[in-house]
Amino acid sequence: MNPTELKSRTKTFALRVIKLTRAIPKNDDAGRVITKQILRSGTSVAANYRASCRARSQAEFISKIGIVEAEADETALWLEPSVESGIMPARKLSALLNEANELTAIMAASRNTAAGK
User: Fold this and answer.
1) DSSP-based three-state secondary structure for 20
2) Which of 23, 89, 100, 112 is 20 to 30 Å from 17 by CA-CA measure?
3) What tens digit of pLDDT does each residue of 14-73 get?
4) What predicted TM-score, i.e. pTM, was given to this entire model?
């Protein structure tokens, strides 16, 4: 997958996160906190990936792609308790959780490849 495709994929992920967070019930503290965390980390994936594409050095790229990896993984972390606590049904989050895990794996592989050079 090339950088243009990944830019599109991470942006689509951010848009899906925004749509999801609008659907999460915010009638209690847990719902509000989880919504903010998912929104922050999920949209950060796209922003930080774009920043990694503009890295001025290999070291900067490795650092920034590591941030993307961490944000994608954090998004997965917040999606999991959303299901486990009953805030959202698993059927509504499974595809997004899968995408968060796939993006985490892609970014980890990219970071490892770049660090090995």
Assistant:
1) helix
2) 112
3) 999 999 999 988 888 988 999 999 999 999 999 999 999 999 999 999 999 999 999 999
4) 0.93
Hey, what are 37's tokens? Answer: 């965390």
Q: What is the CATH number of the domain that holds 55?
A: 1.20.1440.60
- CA–CA dist 96, 79 (Å, integer): 8
Cβ-based neighbours of 65, under 8 Å, separated by 6 or more:
49, 52, 107, 110, 111, 114
The total domain count for the chain is: 1
Instruction: Give the number of residues written for the chain.
Output: 117
Chain mean position to CA 60: 20
Contacts of 68 (CB under 8 A, 6+ apart): 10, 45, 48, 49, 52, 103, 107
Q: At what angle do helices 3-23 and 29-53 cross, to 10 degrees?
A: 170
Cβ pair 103, 9 in contact under 8 A: yes
Other C-beta atoms within 10 Å of 70: how many?
17
Show the domain range for 52.
Answer: 3-115
